[in-house]
Amino acid sequence: MYAVTSGIDNDFYYDLIFYRYVSYLFRCSSPNGQPAYASVVQTSCQQPSKLIVVKVSETPKSYKRKFTVCLMPLFGNFSDAHSLVEWVELNLLLGAEKFFVYDNSSAENIRCVLKMYAERNIVEIVQWPIPVKDVHYVGQIAQLQDCLFRNKPESEFIVNVDMDEFIIPRKDNVRTWSDFVANSSSGAFIFRNTFFLKETYDENSSSNALAKQFKLYSLLLSKHEPKVWVHGQRSKYIARTSMVTWLRVHDVLQSSSQIDLVSEDQAMLFHYRYWENKNVNTDNFVTDETVIRKYGETLVDNVKRTWTEIEAHRLKHCEPSSKNTS
């Protein structure tokens, strides 16, 4: 084995620097073909302290799947299983084929649900044991790059959304993400955000009883704030893995092709958030029943079936402490 040194190219990207640990993304050339290992040293004479195995991420002739969803790391002993199931099931209807779930800290009921989805080959769980107090927002920038490069050889697109967010096509004849990206060669699609406020839900409303039972806020809320955030502020995206190099939370930093700034009449990021404001004035809120109209009936049926499967899975595979899966 012999060593080849290569300087770091001018382009690099780093996370916020106000923490003990930061995420750095370096790019360097390889003058003698595909390397086996990589390391970062200050001088060419310095002995590397760690060697990282280089994984090839060439664009394949055909992909295993079209859409893979990358979820920011779970943290703070996350335990909201209803939100997790709603998020997975609605995204499956939208076109997701696999979910990469990064787990820093989750409750037993969440691990039980994730294990069930993992056994169905829908979820891949990535353990993420980083010091959350010493890095910006659970290392989300590093997590996004990790998810991108894990999926470059396997998935044509990755989708970046949080657990309370959904990228919703709004045209009646466009039901899935596949429909939306059809006939486009763009490297990424950035979607504007709007908030549906959970505190505006009226428990006495005539909403679907099963939607209430399973806490499906995407069906319980049909009015959003009038504000639609500009691209780059709270926006999320679908990115073509072969054309993007670096990702940020709300947009794509670098792409070898056009980036589409999607208009709100085509598709939007629906964001279901609880702001703890009981005095919200909804007089000027905008009614949008796209999710209810296009996915509501199927979503309720799928969620009901999934919760039955979760209970059966819990009885066979999960610890007694996970009995309360909700």
Care to describe what's here?
The chain is an alpha/beta fold. The chain folds into two domains: 1-54, no CATH class; 65-322, Spore Coat Polysaccharide Biosynthesis Protein SpsA, Chain A. Helices cover 25% and strands 23% of the residues. The chain is globular.
Order of helices and strands: EEEEEHEHEHEEHEEHHEEEEEEEH
Oligomer: single chain
Give the strand order of the largest sheet, numbering strands 1, 2, ... along the chain. 7-6-5-8-13-10-16
> Which blocks of ≥5 consecutive residues have pLDDT under 50?
none
Beta-strand segment tally? 18
Membrane topology: Single-pass membrane protein
Enzyme class: transferase
InterPro entries: Glyco_transf_92 (IPR008166)
EC number: 2.4.1.-
List the helices and strands and how they pair.
Layout (H helix, E strand, L loop, with lengths): L12 E2 L9 E2 L11 E2 L13 E2 L11 E10 L6 H14 L3 E6 L4 H12 L3 E5 L12 H12 L3 E6 L4 E5 L7 H5 L6 E4 L1 E5 L11 H5 L3 H4 L2 E2 L11 E5 L3 E4 L4 E4 L3 E3 L5 E7 L12 E2 L2 H28 L9
Parallel strand pairs: 5-6, 5-8, 6-7, 10-16, 11-17
Antiparallel strand pairs: 1-2, 3-4, 8-13, 9-17, 10-13, 12-18, 14-15
Helix pairs in contact: 1-7
